[in-house]
């Protein structure tokens, strides 16, 4: 089934006659930047965005983001600010918090984190002390930078220990995670990933955390929109803290959010501000509120289910054409191709795909044998192409030209042909910002 997620309702394009690109003040004040905005819009229109962490915010979200709420300082939380004049922005932030709680059934929400990294930083700092032990997914197996990378604050402030996927299957084996937790005895367990294509067993993570006396934090940055749309199990009933970003599967503004149990509400709020941030970005918080409202709409649930259906269809078509996917497929919105059978490396593939209007990113996977900068995998996802209204049929087309590119990597004629096919697909599915495509 193909759901036209661009038509009508909360995710609708701007009304006819409203040219979203006509930013008159910007064109007059700074034609150079205005020109680059146009160029980037054209790039997005002409490109199939398959990076699983990217998406298309709605026109309504972008309008809230580009508003005069940018002008207001409001350190603190609604009703308890360090600045005057917060009577309106208090209502904005309360709406965002209430909608976040309602959408996810959470006891408390802090909507101030500027990004996922700040959300994780504030959640850790709410209950951990420097040097505390944290157990997180191995970074080269799907974990995130903020889950203990030695070059990130997380690895510098806390003592992170990794848990691993099973060597045989590439899947997380919860008995092995439990064994690691019993060995490490962490103060917190972090569940979540940036490139694991499977659903996590939140109940098992919670049992393990309880057994070893650890807090459980779930970083659902990648799959929050799937949870919001009912297309993925929710970690909220199981975890002490749930963090996420709002610009990935949520289709909102760039930003982060922390959900937590009521007992941690004060600690989380103080940790976000003044702990790790100063003034909240009220324009971003207004845009998050708009996004939460959109996520409550049935149209968004249809979108979230379509993202998963598209990912399964894309994975099935790739497997059909003998491509090797880590873990053998996907349960969520992403998948990772093992490039070794093609004799190719991630960095070169990423660059070649850029040239033919298909955006992917080089990615590690368990035992890939490459380097973090030039791994032997590429990561793909369906959130953005689904926002353009594409369905399973188009996933078949995309799988076709991905495999043609990988098989005919050294043949310029194949590249030229794929460029034409990707451009044609983009023209058939315009971005949701205008009623007509740019010529
Ligand atoms: N950098 C993001 C991603 O691409 O998964 C996570 O923050």
Write up this protein:
This protein has 439 residues and is α/β, with parallel strands linked by helices. The strands form four sheets. Strands 4-10-9-8-7-5-6 form a seven-stranded mixed β-sheet, with helices on both faces. Strands 11-14-13 form a three-stranded antiparallel β-sheet. Strands 1-12 form a two-stranded parallel ribbon. The protein has helices at residues 24-29, 31-45, 59-65, 87-104, 116-127, 153-157, 174-184, 202-212, 224-228, 265-276, 282-295, 298-320, 346-355, 383-387, 392-407, 412-428; strands at residues 48-49, 76-77, 80-81, 108-110, 133-137, 159-163, 188-192, 215-219, 241-245, 256-260, 334-338, 358-359, 361-362, 377-381. The radius of gyration is 22 Å and the shape is globular. Helix 5 (116-127) packs across helix 10 and helix 12 (298-320) runs parallel beside helix 15 (392-407). Mean pLDDT is 94; it is low at 1-8 and 435-439. It is built from 16 helices and 14 strands. Helix content is 43%, strand content 12%. D-serine is lined by residues 53, 116, 144, 194, 221. Residues 53, 116, 144, 194, 221 line the site of D-serine (DSN).
